[in-house]
Amino acid sequence: xxxxxxxxxxxxxxxxxxxxxxxxxxxxxxxxxxxxxxxxxxxxxxxxxxxxxxxxxxxxxxxxxxxxxxxxxxxxxxxxxxxxxxxxxxxxxxxxxxxxxxxxxxxxxxxxxxxxxxxxxxxxxxxxxxxxxxxxxxxxxxxxxxxxxxxxxxxxxxxxxxxxxxxxxxxxxxxxxxxxxxxxxxxxxxxxxxxxxxxxxxxxxxxxxxxxxxxxxxxxxxxxxxxxxxxxxxxxxxxxxxxxxxxxxxxxxxxxxxxxxxxxxxxxxxxxxxxxxxxxxxxxxxxxxxxxxxxxxxxxxxxxxxxxxxxxxxxxxxxxxxxxxxxxxxxxxxxxxxxxxxxxxxxxxxxxxxxxxxxxxxxxxxxxxxxxxxxxxxxxxxxxxxxxxxxxxxxxxxxxxxxxxxxxxxxxxxxxxxxxxxxxxxxxxxxxxxxxxxxxxxxxxxxxx
Length: 449
Ligand code: UDX
Prior knowledge:
single chain; 449 residues; six-stranded parallel beta sheet; 17 helices; globular; binds uridine-5'-diphosphate-xylopyranose; UDP-glucosyltransferase activity; transferase
């Protein structure tokens, strides 16, 4: 905490407009504010946070000229446009903040804390001579995995041939080539992405929404490579819970419906905030749930099924049958759903936040990754933490996977494993645990800048 007579710190947090990135950034801001720092929260106009949940922050909307997150296909163009469009506004505001500081009698030194997707902030910080810290909202294991791509380029082995995708990557156990984030990009797209993330000014530290024991090996490699402090302060929804920041309205009927179900009987199915799929894949999901004989909550995010507004692609008799056994909603209060005693399994796309939220509640997972880091997370869930089952989206397969999780010895073992990890996380986030210690260290580090 800033003490009397000590120079104060103004932290400028720069968030990206993705659900899985915005929420942890707000949680981080709340924690740092509780430690006495002033928080300026810069964000794009797309998917803005609700200022009323954080009355002590100064919000700084950055005009971005964007109307959506680009979907999975246009993600690189989206990132480029986001950064190009926000950059001049962010730069102007930072210069203004610096000038105000120079003129003020109450001196505050400025520290930039930015989402890794908002790479423009790192280069502006470098130009203005401000220290910058990168916040990572995906797993640490992504970094060593992603770093294999330049090597594949060098050896002219990129894009990876289809025949190799199921093979293990030498030195990256337990990952197969298909698990590497962005492995399906073209050579040109991959080079573009690498260029975008290469900043000439290195950060002074990283803040990672992960837990030390869960990703020890990847974190050791990251520390060795970057030689700056890496603060592992996750899972932020436990270490610094905040009011919900859902971009879509949460359907709270999920909780009253869950209250009427038996313990550990319900399967919760959701593919997160970005993944999209064909009606055929979504229909297989629907049949899998309908035939599973387990009660379920299925989140179908509006627009997540290609060419459809919501569930109009499903046959009416199937919808009627589904409504007898389960609930279909547009967006759920996911953290509360996973924490509910009636939930016994999570059929997920394995986004990093969903993974952490399930792990924290000891809920075993059915893993159906769609893109980016999700294959890697699914691989860790199934092969390292052994609390998840990888599935393919075919009706018979889905039904049998659900049965394996809910009714087999294998499922029971996965549940035990999930609960063991849950216990370890409780220790990490409690007083004296690794995440709490890392949060204290982060505060001391910022005060040392
Ligand atoms: C994707 C990636 O897969 C992720 O790893 C990356 O870091 C960000 O982009 P996303 O699809 O948003 O993320 O998934 P995830 O990281 O799991 O985040 C989704 C968030 O939305 C979670 O916090 C989840 O609780 C919330 N959510 C999802 C709801 O609150 N309600 C829902 O119905 C569905």
